[in-house]
Amino acid sequence: MTKDPDQAAGPRNNSASLRRALSILLQLGHDTGGGGFSLAELSTELSMNKSTLLRLLQPLIEARFVEQLPSGHYRLGWRNAQLGQVYLAGVDLHRNMRDVLQKLATQTNETAHLVIADFPSIVYVDKVDSPHPVRMFSRIGNQQPAYSTSLGKAMLAHAPNETVELVIANGMPARTPQTITTAEGLRGELAVIRERGYAIDDIENEEGIRCVAAPIFDQSGASLSGISISGPVERVTREKVPEFAPFVVAAANEISRRLGARR
């Protein structure tokens, strides 16, 4: 009989069980359609046997972090939304800057995003959708790579060298044919962004989407958040980027001012 690795006694086992339970929640977070994951799908995605999964799922279900659908599939429960709202209520960036985001979306007629850094990734914390029926798909709480997004590059352009090296060391696989995939290419791009004042995702992270972003600075002078507009390349053309950029930079500057930035 194969022994369940989580059955061994001791504090180390408790830590391993917690990590495995968290991995279940993170995997369920990839469910974009609401249909959830079957036990077999979770077992495959997480390389975890079904008996271990069932044992870890039970307390998550009881605490309402996971719910089981009539189909038998599992998805995130309402408790996650409750914690998420508590977190977002404590983030001044999200709570106090909505008007700036709304103004930017109105000025450009494109989707405006607010993000925070979690290098080597970025995390969307707020958005205002474009009024157009065709627009970029994104979700609050979603993560994207820093190296291939305008928002990530805008912040990296003002980040310490060790942060840039962390992103590079994490890998830079091509997400589209336009993605910058070399350390030299990224460093060169960051130098251009510092000089220009804003960053461009020129179809580097998602096919058919172009974005313009600017860094937000806090009172310490660090940039750990950013603001952007995104849209289909048919509307956000290369020719229109210089037209959109001043609006994005002005929005970033306004939020920076409110955060007490000196620059």
TrEMBL record:
<dbReference type="InterPro" id="IPR050707">
    <property type="entry name" value="HTH_MetabolicPath_Reg"/>
</dbReference>
<dbReference type="Pfam" id="PF01614">
    <property type="entry name" value="IclR_C"/>
</dbReference>
<dbReference type="InterPro" id="IPR036388">
    <property type="entry name" value="WH-like_DNA-bd_sf"/>
</dbReference>
<dbReference type="InterPro" id="IPR014757">
    <property type="entry name" value="Tscrpt_reg_IclR_C"/>
</dbReference>
<dbReference type="GO" id="GO:0045892">
    <property type="term" value="P:negative regulation of DNA-templated transcription"/>
</dbReference>
<feature type="domain" description="IclR-ED">
    <location>
        <begin position="79"/>
        <end position="261"/>
    </location>
</feature>
<dbReference type="GO" id="GO:0003700">
    <property type="term" value="F:DNA-binding transcription factor activity"/>
</dbReference>
<keyword id="KW-0805">Transcription regulation</keyword>
<keyword id="KW-0804">Transcription</keyword>
<dbReference type="Pfam" id="PF09339">
    <property type="entry name" value="HTH_IclR"/>
</dbReference>
<keyword id="KW-0238">DNA-binding</keyword>
<dbReference type="InterPro" id="IPR036390">
    <property type="entry name" value="WH_DNA-bd_sf"/>
</dbReference>
<dbReference type="InterPro" id="IPR029016">
    <property type="entry name" value="GAF-like_dom_sf"/>
</dbReference>
<protein>
    <submittedName>
        <fullName>IclR family transcriptional regulator</fullName>
    </submittedName>
</protein>
<dbReference type="GO" id="GO:0003677">
    <property type="term" value="F:DNA binding"/>
</dbReference>
<dbReference type="InterPro" id="IPR005471">
    <property type="entry name" value="Tscrpt_reg_IclR_N"/>
</dbReference>
<feature type="domain" description="HTH iclR-type">
    <location>
        <begin position="15"/>
        <end position="78"/>
    </location>
</feature>
